Amino acid sequence: MSSSLLADVHDLKSRLEWGQPAFTIVDVRDRHTYNYSHITGAIPIPLDDLVSRAKSALHTERQIYIYGEHDAHTAHAAQILRESGFADVSEIQGGLTAWKTVGGATEGVGA
Fold first, then answer.
1. pTM reported for the whole predicted model
2. Transferase: present as a keyword of the record (predicted)?
């Protein structure tokens, strides 16, 4: 059974705090933006490399949470992954901004 296509930052933060790490967070923003600040533990896969890198790095059954520059960017990236055979992709609504609003942990030079 698939989870909702849209992920709430509160739910994601709770899963991390309760130690349920059976998922991967993917940041599809450019490398400079990722290096400045990103969700703790997120892996950087720029949109241009998304399909090739995701297929080599992630199992298609893995639960993936994804975020980009804005919700439309995130939705586009999620659609690309779904079309590439990834079964469980959730979009982090509001991305990094929403994550910071709920006090989610971040890393990077501007974190």
1. 0.87
2. yes
